Amino acid sequence: MRTYYLDAEIYLSSSAIWFDERRYPLNGIEGVWRRSRGLPGGRLIGQLAVLIAVGALAVLGFGLGIRGHVSSGTLARLFSSTTGLVVVGVVGLGVSVVVVLVIEAALHGIESAQRFGRQQELWVRYLGTDLLVLSTSDSVRLGKVHRAVIRALSDRQP
To answer: Is residue 150 very low, low, confident or very high in pLDDT (cuts 50, 70, 90)?
Structure first.
């Protein structure tokens, strides 16, 4: 007997699929489909809102701070000394690290929204009855189970 998929909730073999502690022979399965519920990217919208708010506060603070230093001549003294140039270099490096981290956070948020964006369900029709096999927000796991069911149904013997 061939195993197509196995985890804590679902076991799919060449003869049957087990879920909810019940066995459903593959010969009785007439179809399989996916269904999604909820808004895509709900977590991403929240993450981007926080990121924009923090960025706006940082730009505002930097703008207000630099205005006082320009009018008092602090920046001119800073760029005219070796110590000042070292400070500018270290601060520039720190700012570039923060920018990279912000971009990484945004990319991680996008990836997270794609994988865990909405509630997804896998259904099968077994002897005329629709059965919910899996309900998850993990689209990767749902895709693995769905492909395994499709392979098992295409490989079954009549």
So the answer is: very high
Q: Please count the other Cβ atoms lying within 10 Å of the Cβ belonging to residue 133.
A: 22
38 has pLDDT over 80 = no
Hey, what are 75's tokens? Answer: 């920046």
Provide the β-strand partners of residue 20. Answer: none
Average of per-residue pLDDT values in the chain: 80
Residue 144 phi/psi, 5-degree rounding, is: -65, -45
- Rounded to whole angstroms, the Cα distance separating 11 from 18 reads 5
Return d(Cα 127, Cα 34) in angstroms, integer. 18
**Residue 34, beta-bridge partner list:** 122
Q: What is the pLDDT of residue 85?
A: 74
Strand, coil or helix: what is 70?
Answer: helix
Say how far apart CA 19 and CA 29 lie, in whole Å. 14
H/E stretch holding 25 reads strand 22-25
For the CA atoms of 38, 141, 35, 44, the dihedral, rounded to the nearest 10 degrees, stands at: 20
